[in-house]
Write a structure and sequence with these properties.
The protein has twelve helices and twelve strands. It folds into two domains: 242 residues, Type I PLP-dependent aspartate aminotransferase-like (Major domain) (Aspartate Aminotransferase, domain 2); 128 residues, Aspartate Aminotransferase, domain 1 (Alpha-Beta Complex). 37% of the residues lie in helices and 13% in strands. The chain has 390 residues and is an alpha/beta fold. One of its GO terms (biological process) is polysaccharide biosynthetic process. GO terms for molecular function: pyridoxal phosphate binding; transaminase activity. Keywords: Pyridoxal phosphate.
């Protein structure tokens, strides 16, 4: 068994990869410092161009976080004050809080236990005469079932936007995540597949009207350099714009890393396969990542490596004592979060989401990881369950 004195294994680090990318990053930073304009300058415009080329989006708007990207996208796509938006009960809080921040009401639905994404049947059952939008979330390594969710949206005349914050590189029958409805978003939080040094995000859309309105909203409701703030108009929920411009320093970091993204994605696939091979058949491991059976081709892009296990919290404590970092996605389903208590949901409403919150844990995973480290993590898990059984 591994000794607690062995080198710690962090859940995430980008130290080595950042060192490798530093020559490209520093070149962009030097150009930025030479110009002396650090907010919403040339580097941001160039990053938007690069992201458009990579994703195929006709419009990319860089903003200061994935959360802001969701809020601005919802508003620009036409979600109004008091509207209902169907979202999954299993996701990061921003999936639902972004709806509240857009002055609308989140309505929860259960997830498909295989993909952890919005279940189309549960989503349709949640639609009322006040529902105007549906927001599938692509989690961990694969997209939601966009064929069936798209059919729900069309059948019920709903706006469809995608919480594609984790999904750079994911494609649905060749179309990049975020571009199957009114638009989607990217998060560049440091742990993401393409991570900045701090918060940063982007809106993706092929709709010119959405792009124009989102661009106005991210800059205090201003169009161009005018001093007139026009974002109080009715189709923007009757609320003013905000300051959500990406810093050029973050754009420089992302420009230095984006050309290597496909290599990083490929490395993550190798590491995911290594984990799966070593954890296959381990007692106590209930579910390993699988690709949901879909009608369209969709290749996985591993943002995290998530498993479901018996006695999850005990395993996490054991791994922590061995110096191995983990992350619980997510300890509490969204419909049971205190901030949504007034919506009246109860335990048992969404059993798939609740089961995942009780059993799911993400293991150390980033493209600087090596397979010897994967071996050590899996050995500790195997030993934990072997020692806990007769």
């Amino acid at each position: 068994m591994n000794s607690p004195s062995a080198p710690p294994i962090p859940f995430f680090t980008q130290a080595s990869s950042f060192d490798r990318r530093w020559p490209q990053i520093s070149g962009h930073l030097n150009a930025l410092f030479d110009r002396g304009k650090y907010s919403h300058g040339r580097q941001v415009v160039e990053l938007e161009r690069m992201l458009a080329a990579y994703t195929g989006a006709e419009h990319v708007l860089a903003v200061n976080s994935g959360t802001d990207a969701l809020v601005l996208l919802l508003r620009a796509a036409g979600v109004q004050r008091g509207d209902e938006v169907v979202v999954p009960a299993f996701s990061f809080a921003a999936t639902a809080t972004s709806v509240s921040l857009a002055l609308a009401k989140p309505v929860f639905a259960d997830i498909d236990p295989e993909s952890y994404s919005l279940d189309p049947d549960s989503a349709e059952a949640a639609v009322t005469d006040r529902t105007t939008a549906i927001m599938p979330t692509h989690l961990f390594w694969q997209m939601a079932d966009m064929t069936r969710i798209g059919q729900v949206a069309a059948r019920r005349d709903l706006i469809m936007v995608e919480d594609s914050a984790e999904s750079i590189g994911m494609r649905w029958d060749g179309t990049h995540a975020g571009l199957l409805g009114k638009g989607g978003v990217l998060s560049f939080f440091p742990t993401k597949t393409l991570g900045a040094l701090g918060d940063a995000g982007a809106i993706l859309t092929n709709d010119p009207d959405v792009a124009e309105l989102a661009g106005i909203l991210r800059h205090h409701g201003r169009m161009g350099r005018t001093t007139d703030h026009i974002a109080g108009i009715s189709n923007l929920s009757g609320a003013s714009g905000t300051n959500s411009k990406m810093d050029d320093i973050q754009a420089c970091v992302l420009m230095g890393k984006l050309p290597h993204l496909d290599d990083d994605i490929a490395r993550r696939a190798v590491l995911a396969d290594a984990y799966t091979e070593r954890l296959q058949g381990v007692p106590g491991v209930l579910r390993l990542p699988t690709l949901a059976k879909r009608e369209v081709p969709a290749d996985p892009v591993y943002y995290v490596y998530l498993i479901e296990v018996e006695r999850r919290d005990e395993l996490v404590e054991h791994l922590t004592r061995q110096g191995i970092g983990t992350e619980v996605y997510y300890p509490t389903p969204l419909h049971l979060q205190p901030c949504f208590a007034d919506l009246g949901y109860r335990r048992g409403d969404f059993p798939n989401a609740e089961a995942a919150c009780e059993r799911a844990v993400a293991l150390p995973f980033h493209h600087d990881l090596d397979e010897d480290t994967v071996d050590r993590v899996c050995d500790v898990i195997r030993t934990f369950y072997a020692g806990s059984r007769p």
